[in-house]
Each structure stands twice: as structure tokens, then as C-alpha cells.
Write a structure and sequence with these properties.
The chain crosses the membrane at residues 12-32, 44-65, 85-104, 116-139, 206-225, 246-264, 276-295, 304-322, 328-346, 362-382. Its main location: membrane. It is found in: Membrane. There is one protein chain. By secondary structure, this protein is mainly α. 57% of the residues lie in helices and 4% in strands. The chain has helices spanning 3-31, 46-51, 53-76, 113-140, 148-151, 182-191, 207-222, 230-239, 241-260, 274-295, 302-322, 333-343, 358-374, and strands at residues 85-89, 98-103, 176-178, 380-382. A two-stranded antiparallel ribbon has the order 1-2. Strand 1 and strand 2 form a beta hairpin. The radius of gyration is 23 Å and the shape is globular. The N and C termini lie far apart (53 Å).
């Protein structure tokens, strides 16, 4: 067996495994149950697995179009790249989407702003276009509102007014809502039939809505204009090396500030016992160390990294003291850490600093508009 055949089998095998894991995860979201037996809960079977394709096929189609947008544009620019590597991940305990995404490996050194721009922008714009189609279909083909009773038969005692009663006594985190972004809000308010629109806590059971929303979520993450994310490639090409070295770390600091805003407030330390105080203080110390690790590559000087870390933490405390109702989204902290420690804040420098033509500039700013349309300040809301 040739090396090329082995490579194709690897890519194809990863795709098939990812198709299976995303189908299982989609079925778990749709039916609110698991494939693994749990006491007191009817486990999912083959029929539910097949239904899960309603989530996995559109979601993986968007992901695949995104990656092949990068792939074919790289080939057109004579840059050697691999086929997409799909990353399957099924937890078996719910609240996973069956994958960590996909990526292609660039096998050549890219020495041109234009090439970085073309390769970086092709993926998110291609995936975004298909996401619009999936969302349009999902919102224009909503089942009757009584559909929710097939998922939650216990709601039938309240009828279609279940939203007033069903969530009163749920444990914390017992229900999940999809946080609005500008585009998702547009579809809900101007495309969907209001009489068929499900309660926000029930949208996770509608596979096309879930697939489309997740596509917008990952598009927005990819288009964050920092480092070697697609948005980083685009902004680097738009504004050039010199300005980007100031803009990228500034945006990263703002992103980290927002993610951790409200996680710790001055009032949190007003506790009745010394034990509780030192426990809170210990958690606060761990948070500072975590943030420092995220900022450790923002400068070669450790003192500078510490100063930035402490300044961000101080600013968060001040804002939380002035406006305790202002809170960021701590779920982004994981991405802040990954971005700061592994993906990088800065962009690889290129020898050729040729300016972009007018068409590319227009597409670049359009991509940043897409980022604004897709970005949700609080992507997932838990009861």
C-alpha cells in the first residue's frame, strides 16, 4: 500500500468517525437522552441515530465547505496543503457536538500577504454562505409547535404555555439556550413563523437550527482578527505588518478582559468566615496565574506579561465594582488560553508586503462584517 493511499485512508477514516460521532451527538441534542444507558432514562437506539443525520450532515457539510475553501484556494496559489483532518470527539454524557472541528496543514512557507489573505478568507466566506442556506431552511421548515411534546411529553399538561412553568424548578444549568447574534436574531424575528418558533430553551432540539447556529459560532471564532486565525490572516493582509503588531495584542487584551469580566467581583470577598475568604482568595490567585499563562507569549519580557495580566485583572475588578451587573462570558476563557498559549497572538511575518487591490480590500472588510453578524457575546446560556 502506497503512502498516498494510507494518507487518503486516514483522512477518509477520520471523516467517517467524525460523521458517526456528530450524528450521535446530534441525536442526543435532539431527543434530550443518551446512547449510554442511564438509570431512569430510556437510552437512544438506531432510530434516533438515523434521525441524528439531520444535524450531522448539514453541520459537517458547512465544516467541509469551509475547509475545502481553504484547500482549493491554497492549490490555486500553488501552496502545498493537506486534505482536511477531521477531529472526532463524542463524550457520551451529552452537551458535546461530536467533533473539535477540522483543519488543513499548510506544507509550504507563505511569503505573501495576498496569499495569506486569499487562503484565509476563502474558508469562512464559503462556510458562511452554506450556513445561511441551512438556517433559512431550518427557520422556514419548523415543525408545528406541538412537536416539542414528542421530546418532552411532560409538557403536555401545560399545553403551549409550557414556557411559563417548565423551567421554574430546574437545577442550575438544566436547560441550554442559544445566545443571539445579529444574524440569528434576524432569522428568528423576520424569517420564522412566530407561531412555530420554539422556546429559547428548546431550540437545541431542532437539528437544522442547531447546525446553523454552531456554524455561525465557529465562523465568528475563526474570524476573530488575532494571530493565525482566519480573521488574523485577513486583518494582517489588510493593514500590514507594522500596524498589526499593535492591533492584534490590543484586541487579544480586550477579548480576555471581556471573557473574565464579572468572574470575580469585590463583593465576592465579603464572606462571613476566614475559611471562605481564603478559599475565594485561592480561586482568585489561580485565575491570575491562568490569565498570566494566556498572556505569557504577548511579550518576550515576563515583567511586561505580568503587568498586562495584573492590569486586566484590576480593570475587571474596577468595572465589576462600578457596574456589578456587567458580566462577560467566562466560556471564552478556554479559547483565550488556547489562543494565547498555542495558536499565537501575532501573525507570521511575510517577505512580500504588497498592498491588496480594491476587490480584496472590499472582501476583507466584508469578512469582518460577517464576524460582527455571527459573533454572540454570550453564545450559550444556561438556566
Amino acid at each position: 500500500m502506497s503512502q498516498r493511499t494510507k494518507t487518503y485512508l486516514l483522512h477518509g477514516g477520520l471523516f467517517i468517525i467524525t460523521l458517526i460521532t456528530t450524528t450521535m451527538a446530534g441525536a442526543e441534542w435532539m431527543f434530550g437522552r443518551l446512547f449510554i444507558p442511564v438509570k431512569g432514562m430510556k437510552r437512544l437506539g438506531w432510530e434516533e441515530f438515523v434521525a441524528g443525520f439531520q444535524f450531522s450532515l448539514p453541520f459537517l457539510a458547512i465544516l467541509t465547505v469551509h475547509e475545502f475553501g481553504h484547500y482549493f484556494t491554497a492549490k490555486a496559489n500553488r501552496v502545498r496543503v493537506t486534505l482536511p483532518y477531521y477531529i472526532p470527539l463524542w463524550l457520551g454524557i451529552g452537551q458535546s457536538i461530536g467533533t473539535l472541528g477540522a483543519f488543513i496543514r499548510i506544507q509550504d512557507y507563505i511569503n505573501s500577504r495576498k496569499k495569506y489573505f486569499d487562503i484565509g478568507i476563502a474558508g469562512p466566506l464559503a462556510g458562511f454562505a452554506l450556513a445561511l442556506v441551512v438556517l433559512w431552511y431550518g427557520f422556514t421548515h419548523l415543525p408545528p409547535p406541538e412537536f416539542i411534546f414528542t421530546i418532552h411529553p411532560e409538557y403536555q399538561k401545560w399545553g403551549l404555555a409550557y414556557g411559563q412553568f417548565a423551567y421554574e424548578n430546574l437545577p442550575e444549568g438544566g436547560a441550554v439556550a442559544l445566545g443571539d447574534n445579529l444574524l440569528f436574531s434576524f432569522f428568528k424575528n423576520y424569517v420564522a413563523d412566530p407561531a412555530r418558533l420554539p422556546h429559547p430553551y428548546e431550540m437545541i432540539h431542532y437539528p437544522y437550527l442547531m447546525a446553523g447556529y454552531l456554524a455561525l459560532f465557529f465562523t465568528s471564532l475563526n474570524l476573530i482578527p488575532i494571530g493565525q486565525l482566519d480573521g488574523g490572516h485577513i486583518l494582517y493582509a489588510l493593514i500590514g505588518r507594522g500596524l498589526y503588531r499593535w492591533v492584534a495584542p490590543s484586541l487579544f487584551i480586550l477579548f480576555a478582559f471581556y471573557a473574565g469580566l464579572g468572574l470575580f467581583k469585590p463583593s465576592d470577598f465579603a464572606v462571613p468566615t476566614d475559611e471562605a475568604f481564603f478559599s475565594e482568595l485561592g480561586n482568585f490567585g489561580l485565575y491570575i496565574v491562568f490569565l498570566y499563562l494566556a498572556f505569557s507569549r504577548i511579550s518576550e519580557n515576563r515583567t511586561t506579561s505580568w503587568l498586562i495580566t495584573l492590569s486586566v485583572v484590576a480593570a475587571q475588578l474596577v468595572f465589576s465594582w462600578i457596574r456589578p451587573d456587567w458580566e462577560g462570558y467566562s466560556g471564552f476563557l478556554v479559547f483565550v488560553f488556547v489562543l494565547g498559549r498555542f495558536l499565537g497572538i501575532y501573525h507570521p511575518e511575510t517577505e512580500l508586503q504588497e498592498p491588496l487591490d480594491a476587490k480584496r480590500k472590499l472582501l476583507g472588510w466584508l469578512a469582518l462584517v460577517v464576524f460582527v453578524l455571527c459573533f454572540s457575546p454570550k453564545p450559550f446560556l444556561f438556566s
